[in-house]
């Protein structure tokens, strides 16, 4: 494997950037210094958070302009005793690089950094038509406005590539995600006198039953690229003490939605569902949506998608059929907020994202850079036509 690429990826993975709490600053400074040392003028963008800078750069000033977007934050490593390879001590074994963020998505960030350096001279000199915009964003894992802010500050373009792990397949659609927190009420009493209270856990069972039926109902809907919607209970919290009948219970629901569904429509469905349960069983139920990633979709035959599909098929024998990613990504900001023709594409398997002993196949990283260079060069040489 190319030594510069391996060294860069290793350096990124060994910088701990967990979110929460949002420790991207050290990595942002590393990326900034690395680009500057190789002649690419970069900017530390201290918005939306002064203590969590992002990195942006633009090389060239022509059209077409292509945004390469990556995020610096990773999910927490969790119980480190569960890792055979320490999460922030990158380990190469059997052709794989192990470490938190190796797949999601520091390999993608590394490819974007190398591409910015490789194409800088030709784009700046006008030997190639176009411009390349680089993003190293914060807060993607928690739906914060990192990428959105970079776009608002002018780091946008005609086309975009969000370098999430897709096993080098080209995604023109991405599911949306809403997290809902549902509070179910009760009345406390001593557990020796349970009939004097109103057990919130028992009440929550009725809500859970309704959510299970709702999940089954919406799975009947379908999108040809990203599959069906889901509503999954991911957390349940109740009780304060072993001998106290709980007065409240909290249910967290992960609602994945397809491009034909809007977050407003999903909100209305959740509200109607819970209102019906509350009225039928005389319950106190409240809900709030704590986070949202909008869905996004662009035409499957768009120029950027076709170029990446063709390059991946030719150079790595990747399935060229139209496809969508079932995870939520920052592509929503490029498509919905900036009106760009943008895809999600990158090396690594989504099955490794957020997993213990996360890893990426180094051969796939190398193939990914070959595909990225070919697709970008073709786009710039043809002027986006």
Please describe what this structure looks like.
By secondary structure, this protein is α+β, with helices and mostly antiparallel strands. It has 2 domains: 3-174 and 295-383, Zn peptidases (Aminopeptidase), CATH 3.40.630.10; 180-293, 2-Layer Sandwich (Alpha-Beta Plaits), CATH 3.30.70.360. The chain contains 9 helices and 18 strands. It has helices at 3-13, 25-37, 102-125, 146-152, 200-218, 263-281, 303-316, 331-337, 362-382, and strands spanning 42-45, 54-59, 65-71, 91-93, 96-98, 131-137, 159-162, 171-174, 176-185, 189-190, 230-238, 244-245, 248-257, 285-293, 296-297, 323-325, 341-344, 359-361. The strands form 5 sheets. A 6-stranded mixed beta sheet has the order 1-2-6-3-7-17, with helices on both faces. Strand 1 and strand 2 form a beta hairpin. Helix 1 packs across helix 3 (102-125) and helix 7 crosses helix 9. The longest helix is centred in the first third of the chain and has 24 residues, at 102-125. It is elongated. The model has no long low-confidence stretch (mean pLDDT 97). Residues 173-281 form the Peptidase M20 dimerisation domain. This is Acetylornithine deacetylase.
């Amino acid at each position: 494997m190319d030594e510069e690429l391996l060294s860069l990826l290793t350096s990124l993975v060994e910088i701990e950037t967990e979110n929460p709490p949002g420790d991207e600053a050290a990595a942002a400074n590393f990326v900034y210094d690395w680009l500057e040392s190789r002649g690419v003028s970069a900017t530390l963008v201290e918005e939306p958070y002064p203590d969590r800078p992002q990195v942006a750069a633009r090389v060239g000033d022509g059209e077409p302009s292509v945004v390469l977007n990556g995020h610096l934050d990773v999910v927490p490593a969790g119980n480190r005793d569960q890792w055979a390879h320490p999460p922030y001590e990158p380990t190469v074994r059997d052709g794989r690089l192990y470490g938190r963020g190796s797949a999601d998505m520091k390999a993608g960030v590394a490819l974007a950094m190398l591409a910015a350096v490789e194409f800088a001279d030709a784009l700046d000199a006008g030997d190639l038509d176009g411009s390349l915009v680089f993003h190293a964003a914060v807060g993607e894992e928690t739906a914060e406005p990192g990428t959105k802010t970079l776009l608002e500050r002018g780091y946008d373009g005609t086309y975009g590539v969000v370098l999430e792990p897709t096993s080098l397949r080209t995604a023109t659609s991405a599911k949306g995600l809403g997290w809902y927190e549902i509070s179910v009420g009760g009345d406390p009493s001593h557990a020796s006198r349970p009939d004097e209270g109103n057990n919130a856990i028992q009440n929550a069972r009725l809500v859970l039953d309704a959510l299970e039926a709702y999940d089954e109902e919406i799975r009947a809907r379908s999108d040809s690229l990203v599959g069906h919607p889901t509503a999954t209970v991911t957390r349940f919290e109740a009780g304060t003490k072993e001998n106290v009948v709980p007065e409240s219970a909290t249910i967290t629901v992960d609602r994945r939605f397809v491009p034909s569904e809007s977050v407003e429509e999903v909100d209305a469905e959740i509200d109607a569902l819970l209102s019906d349960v509350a009225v039928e069983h005389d319950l106190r139920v409240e809900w709030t949506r704590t986070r949202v990633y909008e869905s996004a979709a662009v035409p499957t035959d768009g120029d950027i998608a076709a170029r990446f599909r063709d390059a991946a098929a030719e150079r790595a024998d990747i399935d060229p059929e139209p496809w969508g990613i079932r995870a939520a990504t920052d592509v929503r900001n490029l498509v919905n907020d900036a009106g760009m023709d943008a895809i999600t594409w990158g090396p690594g398997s989504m099955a490794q994202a957020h997993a213990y002993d996360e890893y990426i196949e180094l051969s796939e990283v190398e193939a990914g850079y070959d595909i990225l260079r070919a697709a970008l060069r073709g786009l710039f040489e043809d002027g986006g036509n």
